[in-house]
Records
---
Amino acid sequence: MKLDKRKSSALDMDFEPNHLYYGDCLDVMHSWPSKSVDLIYVQPPSNSNVTASGPQGENIRQPDRELNTFTDMWTWTDKAEQRLKRLQHTTHPVERAIRASAIVLKHTDMLAYITYMAERLTQMKRILKPTGAIYVHCDSTASHYLKQIMDVLFGPKNYRNEIIWCPTGGRVRWYNSNSKNFSESRETILFYGMPKHQFKACYEPDPHAEKRYQHVDEHNRRFTLMPLWRSPSMDSRPNLNFEWRGYVNPHPSGWIMTKDNLERLYQDGRIYIKNDRPYRIRYMDEDKGKLVSNVWTDINQLHGINTEFPDFPPQKPLALLERILNASSNEGNLVLDPFCGYGTTVEAGLKLRRQIIGIDTSMLALDVINTVRLLGKYPSLPIKGFHPFFESDRHTSVQQMHSPRQQFPIDFEPANSEKDIEIIYQLKDAFHNDFKAFSHLVKKERYQFQDWAVQQIGMIPNRRKSSDGNIDGAGELVDAPYDNYQKIALAQVKSGKSTNWKADIERFCYTLDSENAAYGVFITLHPIGAKSPAHKIVEQLGNITVGNKTYPRLQLWSVEEFYVNGTRPNLPPLVDPYMN
């Protein structure tokens, strides 16, 4: 993973395809050139109280990965008030639509969402090419309000469709049945194409094709017969009234094509004579299928064993994004997803040979795109922007962090310095490109390696590098374990080889017990040998139970295994330490 090494702010991000960007898409897009993007797919967090699954498959409240962004988007606050004032300025393109929305919605959470999206959609309109298109995947409670904003920005004549996606195939979800209302089984996607946008029709397989292609030729190809004469009810066409190989349409409507084209079909073996009348042969394997309408019932939501990206639901199926990209972009076109999450659009774009840009406010999500989703399929994408952990003006004290101070051990001081950012980026770059070079860098920068390693498992590094009580990283569990342990997770990192792994791990176990921590992860650069007595200690320490799942209280994890196989520890979910 390559990251931009310039110490710039989110407001100064170069426009570069095939990159991921960390930050608010409004800030990221601000300095980008106008008319530069071919296709935009937008799916911001919806106003839903459903339960979602976190990075380790545990149930947590949605959306867990960036609570601040969700709050800004869906809560009426002072920030929303300021947005409203900006958008109501007479020079703003959505001013009249926003004033109308404010009259209807007043100062509600829905108006906060509409103003949030209006600012960002304004930037998206600016960067969209005259040949471009935008798809906005939105909550059914907000789609009609958003359409007003989009009509003003993109023009009502450029509205193409309201796509109704039925992720359950039109069937009622068993867990969403409601005898008092019609049950929800659909989602809304608003599609706008700019005046010069060239839409490409989409097709789906026809399940009844064999009934229509009832004939079989000597090569076992199924075919049907298409008329070559225009029907008697059609107007007379003197230019298409002719004799061809002894055949003449008895009606003045004539043939459906010219004599030259008829002869060409005949020479190609595509004419079939039946009941002394010529027909055109149409083969089933050449049929594109059924034309797709704006109601999509053939792409199901992912769940259970059908999940394409199992550790990080909820997610949209690749087939959904592939259909959108195929319909409104070509190979080499630039596709933007301003709320890319765990990267379904990113993977679909790379698969279909598009250039791609993804933006998200969660560094974890962006890192997972490279280290999990794209791993072994496509090269990782460089990341531009900075995690708040590296910003000098934020999180300068423990009290500013989401986690309360009492949840951290005495010997732990959350790192907040920016001084090692260059080396951290070098480690990320080397890890995703050359493990040998990465190992050499680790030997020189072992403290920075500690910081990098604990971040890979969702913990925050310890600023104390000596007298640290065997604690190199710590985190807070989302849910308390059932075994009367504290909601603390600890990590220790060893960058070199050891002559006695058993003794090293025993010291770490003593730390776990003294802090009454729920679990610990012992991280090494290379795997500890299978015959080492260290593995016996892991077994003796037993398990913990969080929610309805059981986890080892101590896990050994090597970065080399992570590099080769993408292997991560099996851990219960942690609170994001970088959220206020």
---
Amino acid sequence: MNKVIDEKLKMLPSKPGVYLMKDNLGNIIYVGKAKILKNRVRQYFMKSKNHSNKVLKMVENIDDLNWIVTDSEVEALILECNLIKKYSPKYNILLKDDKTYPYIKITVNEDFPRILLSRKTDDKSAKYFGPYTSSYSVKQTIDLLRKIFEIRSCNKDLSKKANRECLNYHIKQCSAPCVRYISQFEYREKINDVIEFLEGKSKKIISELTKKMYEYSDKLEFEKAGEIKNKLDHIDHILEKQKISVPGDASYDVIGLYEGEKYYSVNIMFIRNGKLLGSKNLYFDLSESKETTLNQVLKQFYHSMDLIPKEILLPFYTEESELLEEFLLKVRGSKVELSVPKIGRKKELVDLAWKNAQEGLKQKISNKYANALEEMKNLLNLERTPERIEVYDISNTSGADIVGFMTVFIDGKPAKSEYRKFKIKYTEGQDDYECMYEVILRRLLRHLEEKEKLENDEIDEDKLRFYNLPDLIFVDGGMNHVKSGLRACEAADIHSIAVFGLVKDNKHRTRDITSDFREYGAFKHRALFNLVSSMQDETHNEAVNYHHSVRTKTTVQSDLLNIPGVGPSTRNKLLKVFKTYEDIKNADKNQLATYVNLKTAENIYNYYHRNK
């Protein structure tokens, strides 16, 4: 323990608050809250057999500490959540997925309300249903509700009557309020039916539609009866995914926690109005107790959650249960009960969440790369087993057409749809380190941009390309490349990502993993070494291929402009027709002459076939 910490320990107040542990670089490595700061913080620096290996390791790395005094322990808890989210400290239990959850929003304040997907619930004049765990299922449900109840999907200003109805009216997916084919009162009745349906009162809707279907059938109006039959099928499709036996219109979250050999698995089920809206699985290393893990789940998960239910069913109580109820009261604005059911249907639901947690963990560890990733965590001294790994490489020829490539591996497996490529824009000359810095920084800034857009409902989830952050970055290269990656993380103010280098031998094969000016001896761990070697090879090959395609395109583009009769306008005209430079090269004279004069067509053809 250094003198700075020794002096600060003497200054700690006997008040509630939050404490921040820092390493020798000034990085915040742990955030905690305390009822009495003096007592809690001093415990870390006392010799005790009760300290876990994680705490002992953390204390070894503490170089400084600060604290913030609060008026109460619950305020300290809220501040702790904010700071953990902001700094992602190395030694805290972290919830990786911080996406806001999608809700169904009904704009009941409008004359002709709409049904929308929203990630915020701050419009007090609207009505919300959720949370759901999949934006795809929300979009699907909204689409079906619009079809069933003929609700408008446009965002037109309906204060003025439109000249004519849109296509949706003709395909019976809108009741055309824009041209007043339906009154405001009749349209509001449809919206009320939607609300009742989402509140779990589907039996009434089904009964009314079924009655109408038989009435049309009795009148031999089979087309209208068929339309209602389709609506009933759509309703059945929605309800099928929500089937769960819950008494009445109960709304609560159910949490199950399963302890495996290497991980805790936590399953959270969202039940609203007697319907299961979805469930979420979270995984944590066994570095803390079950109680601490459950506490952190409740703090971090519900800290930014909208529409928290009145009751959360738990597998067990913890010492902080009463404090957490105070915390949830502040977050929700009204009482939230944390209960541990012992009998009945609620107990069965907690058991079901436990089974879901167990099944989720089985699927996670059945991955053939699990051992290699566990070796990686231990060898590189990572706090968590990495789930998402990104690998970066820079490729160029004598400083020309420099490109960067990012490959992504999720649970050890290549996720090709997540691969991204970059043309170097801002780095001048052949500077590998600055190119690496540019590529990683641009990637991280895109994450921040998409995160802000998602929170403001300005982007659909299926349009996100850089949102998910990695647990670990590998750069192709040595310590200077690692420094470039660390600089990029610092510039983006993102501190939760570990950065390591993959160095090669003189035969251009993977030799080892490097960081902190040392190599780790990865070759001694076969599964790990095979995995990182395949990652490096995959990234290098993709980078080279991308560089080759860019280089070829640049060369052909330059060649094309050297041909007599071809200027920028002719080149652009040909590209509109042939799409690629390769297609222009392979075109015959007659094809070319369709779009340019015969002399120019002959010049182009002869230029590319002169050596054949």
---
Amino acid sequence: MTETIRTSTPSPGPSSNNSAAGITAKGLKGGQLGLLAVVVLGISTIAPAYTLTSALGPTVNEAGLQLPVIFLIGFIPMILVSLAYRELNADSPDSGTTFTWVTKAFGPWVGWMGGWGLLAANIIVLSNLAGVAVDFFYLFLSQLTGAPELADLAANKALNVLTCFVFVALAVWVSYRGLHTTKLVQYGLVGFQLLVLGLFVAMAFANWSTSETAIPFSWEWFDVTRIETFGQIAAGISLSIFVYWGWDVCLTVNEETANGKKTSGLAGTLTAVIVLAIYLLVSIATMMFAGVGDTGNGLNNTEIHENIFTALASPIMGPFAILMSLAVLSSSAASLQSTFMSPSRSLLAMGHYGALPEPFSRVSRKFATPGFATIAAGVMSAGFYAVMHVVSENVLNDTILALGLMICFYYGLTALACAWYFRHSVFSSVRNFILRLLCPVLGGVGLFVVFGQTAVDSLAPEFGSGSEVFGVGLVFVLGIGILALGAVFMLIMARVRPGFFRGETLKRDTPALVVPE
């Protein structure tokens, strides 16, 4: 990784039809991805096998038998927000996505915080992905060799953190080498995990009646009125939002996608719909086989919450259980690698427009990737994981809950930015009213309601793992504390790089009337 790099700088001159907004090229290579490749990257980033093994238990703990309807409710703001992303991307395709679009709508200060929220979410999930990869790596070695003691190596904190660093370094290396290498890796890993999940679902449906904790399917699982409090709904949705999160990577690679204005937006929506179908099938099959009890294989058993599939793979799949361990390992490893595309390109855009120090704007001459930004994202995620592994009793659960706060913040902000940015054209047609006003506002407001409820609830130390900092719940400290830290960094950058905050490099702009192509 020592080849010469070139620095991209904001161009003051016109750039296609986005000249008024100041959007300029950053040195990324266009036309590298088609629709299928972008959808595969989106599914890889969401990582169905990884997200389900991490989030299924905590979500059942909040929603109980209403797990399927929570997944459906959580999907509603996701699809609404994805439509807002499509509109913004069609008007102003830019790898900075939330950072760029919120800046254009609300100005540099709000835009910077939107970009920070996106970066924080990615750094949190990268550390989480690395943690799951470590756990399943040693579990896979244990199953492969028949030596149970190998699985216990993941509990050794020093070895765990060191192994995490190795996984992050490998993911950074692949990401640094560009989208061609990434695409080849992802086709194999995503295909494998989907095949294994399909086998898991088929065998769970076939064998559910043989389980001691089995429960029959019921349409009442889709009845939201059976959830007792709004707090449960908010927490359940926050967790389900985590399992959908990642489709927006499809928009992050818009500058490197063939016909990125249309392809990236369509890929994001398709990815969300495909993942919804996967989650409903897996959640129903798992509930039927395991039930929602708090003992044994029951999904409310807190002892199996960190890795549901570890407990259920053998009872459901028998001798094929090793495939599930390998699927979760490949899922988390694949997502660890593909997820780096989002923070690296967001950091690139923020550096390019002068919102971060100049080194972040550098692009690899050989691979046309955000070289410095990719390495920086790797260092930050590995460092965050190391710290969390020391202070949290349940690092996966706490980071998932904190991640939900970050997602609600920057997704909601982007959706509201869409409505404000297009405010002059929302009444020009029924289509514009629905896609540029109604859907974005409903999605954005809904996410901020969940954000507020979860933030209030997470003040209590018992929220999440029970870890606390000076009597305040660790989830609140992570979620709100990281946003507050972002505000501090923003004030520092405003003093160091004032041009962006004066609107000199990326202007606040609103099209008077945009007619869709």
---
Amino acid sequence: MGMRAALGAFALAAAAVMPVMAQAQTVTIVREVDSDRYDPHRSTARGASEVLFMMADTLVSLDFDMKTIKPGLAESWTASPDGLTYVFNLRKDVKFCDGKAMKADDVVYSMKRWINPETKSPVRWRAGKVADITAKDDYTVEYKLKEPFSELLYQLTQTFAVVIDKDNVEKLGADFGVKGFNGTGPFCWVDWQPRNEMRLKRHDAYTWGPPISENRGPASVQEIVWKIVPEENTRLAAVMTGQSQVTQYIPYSGFRTLRNNPATKVIESREAFWTYFIGFKIDKAEVNDETLRRAIVMAVDQAAIAKNLYFGEVEPAYSYISQQALDWNKGLDPELIKTNLAEANKLLDQAGFAKGADGFRQRNGKKIEPVLYTFTGSTWQKLAEAVQGDLRKIGVDVKVQLFDATVAWGKLATQEFDMFGMSYPYISAGDALNLYFRSANTPTPNRMNWKDATTDQLLDKGMAALKDEERAAAYGEVLAQVHKAAVWIPLYHEPMKIGYSSKLAPFKAHNIYGCGLYKGLDIKFLK
């Protein structure tokens, strides 16, 4: 779709949903894909976290430097010298959107639902190995671990650890996070139309925002509308024409346009990391050969992708995490698999993957044509097509299947595919590796079916380490293992960049879980 058509398309769509924009009390945020649901314990989608950060709060918060822990719902906390017991002292002025006071029992319920096996949370490991969580009184929570967890406070800043309302969860049942959500955040649930929009209203009683926000509450705008706009030029047009006020889903071809347009601005932050990759389900017949996977990784031209698809706005990735991330194993640098078509073809020839008359390789008479599952939307469609084209140069015929985000997460929890496209945020090696490479995390988020006892032991060692060097050494060994096994095709590392209307006051971009707008407290119109 061209820019002129995009302008018209968005104007027509916006007219139907934004009749009160002239009052400057509504901020519309356009994004590429929706979430499957807004249950903090059951969704790992960035789309869910973007909204959940605005509707709910966590015990502690993370500063913009992505390193410093600050107060949240807990105004203070202590940790025992052995790292096994944390005591959180709660604020006494917090209320849910329905007006009910938040107390320690609400925190305990939320945390225990998170770690309850019946919840089937794919990120329960982020809570650490919990011995018990108890309310010592109405405003004191004791969090006891079976063994130290070096990243506990960081994990408690994530949306998986938000405080939710037991009555609301029980009333809605399976529709919790689908038809409603009662949180303590600066905005409250109004309505969700999947694959279209999520509408939030200001929580007028909110005054307990994290200290990193200039505005502690209430929010400066009355309403926020998260609108799904899959087509990238339409998103760009929306911001340029003022139909949307902000987006971090900017087509890379549009950054120069936004920077040169007096009606728009771009804010950037490189304080955290977001990496795009394609993973292999390593026990599937199509990709269970390490030599085949290694050749496939070699065939992908990350530098060309960064230049041609993303106009040099991203960094080509040859590692699974950025080399600037905490606990990166520097010894891996010379071992990373780099683009080399000639070597990839040589490896496959030597391993007996013969080319047929059609130019595609076969094994035991069967064509090598792995199935790749990923998301609809311009980002993954273009990425998948680029990788598909690169792999055809070595005779591998990848079959791409794209799914809307509302169903993709379910599809990606199955065993139906051979490869999958994914992107993820992290602050450290441990944050990334514990998520994706624990045996217990199959079938999701360990969609590779990587099950290795040594890996699990090293991850446990890193989590429980009380010394930085011990943690880094353990995680470094895991990185070496999974890189050598060619479990992923790393594609690119993406910095945080947000485009916004010049009618908005300048604000900082946060990087927590890739949710640049965080709680939305500092979003406001210029007077």
